Amino acid sequence: MDKMPKWADVVLVPVVSLLLAAIISVIVFWSVGQNPWEAIKLMAFGAVGTSDFLGYTLFYATNFIFTGLAVAVAFHASLFNIGGEGQVLVGGLGAAIVCLFIPWPHWTLALLAGGMAAAVFGALWVAIPAYLQARRGSHIVITTIMFNFMASGLLVYMLSDALRPAGQMQTATAIFPEAAHLPSLNDIAGLFGSELFGRSPVNISIFIALLACVGVWLLIWHTRLGYQIRAFGQSESAAKYAGISAVNITMIALLISGALAGMMAVNNTMGINTPQLVDNAAGGAGFIGIAVALMGRNHPVGIIIAALLFGALYQGGAELSAATSIPVQIVVVIQALVIMFTGALDQMVRSPIEGLFLRFGGKGVGAPAAVKE
Q1: Which among 229, 303, 342, 357 is placed 20 to 30 Å from 331, CA to CA?
Q2: Whole-number Å distance between alpha carbons of 246 and 230
Q3: Range 276-295 burial, b when 16+ CB lie within 10 A, else e
Q4: What is the pLDDT of residues 141-170, one digit of tens each?
Q5: How many Å from the N-terminal Cα to the C-terminal Cα in the chain?
Q6: If you compute the radius of gyration of the chain from its CA atoms, what whole number of angstroms results?
Q7: Measuring CA to CA, how many Å separate 339 from each of 81, 108, 288?
Q8: Which pTM was predicted?
Q9: Running DSSP on this structure, what letter comes out for residue 269?
Q10: Are residues 71 and 343 in contact, defined by beta-carbon separation less than 8 angstroms?
Q11: Beta bridge partners of 278
Q12: Bridge partners for 10 per DSSP
């Protein structure tokens, strides 16, 4: 018997979680002497109030789509890839090498090569943790956390030595050649005489992220491999009994996950206004992807919606901090509350709702009809 209908799981539970986060956020704003309604209006305006602000929201959402998909693919195999941050950094290293050392005649070729390099580097970075999980039983959470720190150290070394231009003090690569710079959506709008999205860095990689959503949807729900991933995630012992290789599924799911995280580098290295790789290129998106996947119920459509929400929180929070005396730490608290209620405290919200449906739903929530003897 289903505990509650699918729509309640997909829509009602996240909405209630967000309402609880909003109520606590109001208390937080009051506690620091700010008018909650004005603060919320400022955040909303900062997220979508102008075409520039909307562009930044979409830019951040693009990052979160990639990392959210990365977490979701692994999660369907009952694997918790918490190493998205490191995979993004190493994916950026791959994209930077391709863009800096190969003279591309056009951005389309650079996009294809840079995206493939970012995906390959991201997949390779998770390959060792995947092998340790599949063959040695090492917990994927522990190994991927360790690899996050290793990725950060590797990137700082490369940017401080091998990839740093002579005489440059910044820990970053040289600016990519013009042919490796992806056109922004404002550039595309300019072809039609519009200034839509202004100076924001949102670029065509948002379409790559949406295509990745379609690809993940097809993979997980419309291919044999996707069925095997989901079967393994539901019951490893049953999957093994059916002839599904635990080693193969673990490796494949994590390699796909790492590739998706690495591809975020297309957006935040090749697509930014000054295209280059910097030491903090991931910007926490690897960890936000976990909350995005959980809130989106590990489905591409839900991930898009959750990514837009977190993109709005990031951009709106930045504008709120800039326009008021509210410390930026308060904005981080608000973001953390959303993550906490949609992720860590999900069961706290889910259980009472399930209880209500079980008590009042009856046959309407999937209860079987009585069997006549």
Answers
A1: 303
A2: 12
A3: bbbbebbbebbbbbbbbbbb
A4: 999 999 999 999 999 999 998 898 888 888
A5: 20
A6: 22
A7: 17, 36, 8
A8: 0.90
A9: I
A10: no
A11: 172
A12: none
